[in-house]
Amino acid sequence: MSSSPLPSHPSPLSSPLPAPLSAPHSRSTVISELRAAGCVFAEDEAELLLSTARTAAELAAMVERRVIGLPLEHVVGWAEFYGRRVTVDPGVFVPRRRTEFLVGQAVGLGRRAGARTGRAPVVVDLCCGSGAVGAVLADALERIELHAADIEPAAVRCARRNVVPAGGEVYEGDLFDALPGGLRGRIDVLVANVPYVPTGEVGLLPPEAREYEPLVALDGGTDGLDVLRRVTAAAPQWLAPGGHLLVETSERQAPHAVEAFTRNGLIPRVTASEELYATVIIGTRPVEGQAIPGPP
Ligand SMILES: C[S@@+](CC[C@H](N)C(=O)[O-])C[C@H]1O[C@@H](n2cnc3c(N)ncnc32)[C@H](O)[C@@H]1O
C-alpha cells in the first residue's frame, strides 16, 4: 500500500462522533493496524478515517477495508483532485494526481476556445471513469457545454454523480459510439485519459490498482496505445476546426502516440510536467487552409 493519503480536511460526512470510539479503534490502534498492513502514511490515513467515520462501527469497517488493501479513495468514497473532492465508487478508476496536468492544459485551451468563439466551449471527457476530469473542468471554466462517456456501467453511474450536478451529461458506450451524433464536428476540447498500461505491465502495477480497479481502465493492449490509436483515428470527425484532443501517455510512449496523431491529420504537441511526472499529447484539428506539418 503506497498511495499518498488524501488531505485530512473535514469531510461533509464528518460530524462529532455520536459515541466514543471503542478501545479497539482508538487513534493509536488504527495507526498500528494500518502500519502493520503496510500503509506508508498510516498516521495521515488514520486521521482521515477518524474524521470521516460517523460511528465506531463505521470506523472499524473502514479500517478493515483499508487493511485488506482497498484503495483509500474507495474506502472513504472520494478523491482529492484538482483541489476538489470527487466521488469515487468501488470498482471505479481512482483519478491520479498526475492527470491534474492534463486538466490544467485543458482549462487553458477551453478558455481560449470560449474567447475565440464567444460561446461556451464544447468539452467532451471520453473514457471518463469517475468523471473527475470533466467535473473539475466544469468548475474551472466560467462556461462549458460538458459531455462525458465511458464503457463501464459502474463508471457511468459514478460519473453521473460528479458530472450531472456540474451541468453535464454522461453516456455509456464504446468511445465515440456513446456520444450524441450532434457533437460531430463541434468539440472544442476532447479529453481522453484512455487506459495506457501495456498488457505485459499490468501485473507490475500496485495491488490496489490490479485488484480494485477494472482491467478495462488499465490495459491499453500490447504497447498500451490500442485505445489511444482508436481515439486519434476518429477524433478528427468529432473535433471542431481548431479543436484539440488531449491524451495522457508515459514518456516512453509519447513518440508513438505522436505518430498516431500525425497519421490522422492532427497537429501534435507534447507537453510534460516533471513535478507531476505527466506527459500529455495535444493534437489540434487544423483549420481550413492550415498546413499540416509532416513527420519529424
Ligand atoms: C485510465 S481510466 C481514466 C478515467 C478518468 N478519465 C480519470 O482520469 O480518472 C480509463 C477509463 O477508460 C474507460 N474505457 C476503457 N475502454 C473504453 C472504451 N472502449 N470506451 C469507453 N471507455 C473506455 C475505462 O472504463 C476507464 O474508466
TrEMBL record:
Does this UniProt record's set of keywords contain Zinc? no
One Pfam family of this protein, by short name? MTS
Q: Where is the composition biased (Pro residues)?
A: 7-21
Entry keyword set: Methyltransferase, S-adenosyl-L-methionine, Transferase
Region feature (Disordered): 1-24
Query: Which reactions are catalysed by this chain?
Result: L-glutaminyl-[peptide chain release factor] + S-adenosyl-L-methionine = N(5)-methyl-L-glutaminyl-[peptide chain release factor] + S-adenosyl-L-homocysteine + H(+)
InterPro entries reported in the protein's UniProt record = HemK-like, MeTrfrase_put, N5-glutamine_MTase, SAM-dependent_MTases_sf, Small_mtfrase_dom
Which GO terms fall under molecular function for this chain's record? Answer: peptide chain release factor N(5)-glutamine methyltransferase activity
Identification of the protein by name: peptide chain release factor N(5)-glutamine methyltransferase
